[in-house]
Amino acid sequence: MQRFDLRDLKDSFYERMVEILESDIKPEEVAIFLFEVGDFTPIQKSADVIKEHGHELMNSLKFNEVDWTVVVKRKSA
Fold first, then answer.
1. What's the pTM?
2. What is the pLDDT of residues 43-68, one digit of tens each?
3. CB neighbours of residue 51 within 10 Å
4. Residues facing residue 57 across a β-bridge
């Protein structure tokens, strides 16, 4: 399991999250992504992006006042 801080990407972290999942994470391995939320739109959009690419969203929770984490399992190869 690896943790990736995508907060510096603000609202453009989706492509980077998928890139990491598909290049840096082994099939069936879990990754934790940390990103910043404002109006909660990124939470649903990140879940949609994960599903579109066939990965499994395992958990999604508020980390602190402005940050959110998602736990994602990479799809099988």
1. 0.92
2. 999 999 999 999 999 999 998 988 99
3. 11
4. 72
